[in-house]
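Section 5.1 Outputs to date
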Amino acid sequence: METRFHDHRNYQPTSQGRWPQRATVLSAQPHKPEGGDFGLFPLTGPNTGSRLKATIVAIHGVSGHYMRTWTHTQSVPPFMWIKDGLGEDLSDCRILSYGYDASVSARWSSPQRSLFDHATNLHNLLQDYLQKEGAFHPVIFIAHNVGGILVKLVLVQSALKAPSIVHKSTAAILFFGTPHRDYSSASMARRLVSSVDGTPSLAGWEPSSSMSMLFKDSRTLRLIDESWMHLHHSYQIYSFYETRASSLGMSSSLV
């Protein structure tokens, strides 16, 4: 994948608004419903102790999976780069991967949870991990497209009142193909639906609960970014976008 670095710390809020009410807090215990694909999964590295230097958290994007999104299936054996690559190079780092329902279409979605719910759940699960440590170490997020919006939600929620250990521990974020400013609902919908269905048509199509905010409420997305403007300077941020088609969901596309 060819990458281009883009520092979006110069983004400025374009309007004023209130942050939406916080989503219902979900269980802070790791969970693996529906075939064990959802939850916060340890992939490699030390769990605790003096060897643990950092925690890396990977969050997949639309129509993604906590393992398949990060796996090159054409190699033999399949190569999962956040585990087999980063895990080998950064053996003193714990690598976690978050799985959540990121189905685009309502017909593929199961639990009726919003993106806010998934963000709250990830925050609680990660906080549970960090509070058990007893010692501070940095957290680094790796996020693909919509997963980047999820990270923003996690960090904004964690700083709404008294900053939580998640906000205080976060050192860096790597955004891969995450939209930061183009919040036209129609534009975003066409890009994401096309990347999964292979067609730009939205006729008769209903988004899942998780993705509905992206298609129906662009104002909320702008408010997220306005709140994010007050936090992003606290972290090292790197943004990458694709210039070559890659596999995503059921088709190949640029994200």
